[in-house]
Amino acid sequence: QTPLVVLGAGYLIALVGGLVIPLLEIRQERKIVNLTMLALLAFNIALTYLLAPHYGALGAAAAYTVAVAVVYTVQLILLQRRTGIPYLRSIVGSNSVSR
């Protein structure tokens, strides 16, 4: 049951983080989208290779969740740098993120 909870958290992150992709595509930043999704694939495979043999399904679920969280955070930061709009500030809070 625990791997499903971790995987569910990963899907929730992917659902929210995936909203950044259309914004990047509207700005004609398809190269960034393609490269970050390729990085997601590679990072997920590497983490799964490292974690799954030791932790089984929980390791595979954790690998996916961590990979998704890292890549979508990178996409959000890149979008913020390209547009100048402080997306992170609205998500994290005004005191947590500085320009």
Please give a handful of descriptors for the protein shown.
mainly alpha, 5 helices, 83% helix, elongated
Concise summary:
By secondary structure, the chain is mainly alpha-helical.
Show the helix and strand layout:
Elements: H1 2-17, H2 20-26, H3 30-55, H4 57-83, H5 87-92
Helix pairs in contact: 1-4, 2-4, 3-4
Average residue-wise pLDDT: 85
User: SS-based structural class?
Assistant: mainly alpha
Domain count: 1
In percent, how much strand structure appears in the residues? under 5%
Following the backbone from N to C, one meets helices and strands in this order, namely: HHHHH
User: Low-confidence parts lasting 5 or more residues at pLDDT below 50?
Assistant: none
* Spatial shape: elongated
Biggest sheet character = none
User: Gap between N and C termini, in Å?
Assistant: 41 Å
The residue fraction in helices comes out at over 70%
